[in-house]
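User: Could you walk me through two proteins back to back? I'd like the raw sequence and the structure tokens for each, with a short line separating them so I can tell where one ends and the next begins.

Assistant: Of course. Protein one, sequence then structure:
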Amino acid sequence: MDVLGLGADPVAADALVCSAKGCRADARWGLLWNNPKLHTPDRRKVWLACDDHREHLEQFLGARSFWKRTVGVDELERA
């Protein structure tokens, strides 16, 4: 259930680790994204980011027009 209305997939509560390759830092951000070729317009996938990788991951997704929004991990629904 998406109680906050973010449309984002739930994240595992015990696995809030940055999604950047090789990074094992605690995630502080949820990057909501969508690949319009694969997902319905309201679907939001989630990448997690630490403070050091947030901007890089947003730019990566933004360059592909996938990035939609960034929120704090405390705003994400837990699985």
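----
Protein two, same layout:
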Amino acid sequence: MEIDSHFRFDPSSNRHHDRGLQKVLDRLSQTIERDALVRQTTNQLRELLQVDRVVLYYFYGKWSGQVTFESLSDRELSILGSTGPDDCFNNEYADMYLAGRVRAIADIELEPIQPCHRDFLRNLQVRANLVVPVLIPRGLWGLLIAHHCQAPRSWLASDIELMQQKAQNIATASCILGS
């Protein structure tokens, strides 16, 4: 067996590898923290508001996104992965949410909304919904949405304030801002 006499162990040669590994670990830690925060928030909101479903609709691209988290009163109400109505969420709506719009609909059957929006909500078994933007310095990160499926519901000012507070908590969390 021949040993290469030119090879010398250099512990500093692992620094680049260690930095890369540390970045991966930091990113993983941040993702776990973010997921725990959003899961806890959606669960708290569903319980406090006494609604059937609370979801986070996350924007992964320019006005493109999907439901990435949900808290449900019944598993049959799951819409996880739903991407929303293709033609209904356009730049006009995105700009309104980017400006901080909160949308509370007590009864989708009586609210003057676009037919495609009403049909979309019906398909999700929604009767009343409350939508609050999650705004970070870079823009619209997501929408925090409460769905009441059983019957119409008049949303109280305290319901809206609670949703806004929780959206703000998400938006200012270091695990969100750093991602």
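The helical segments are 15-49, 91-98, 115-123, 157-171, 174-177.

Let me know if you want the two compared in more detail.
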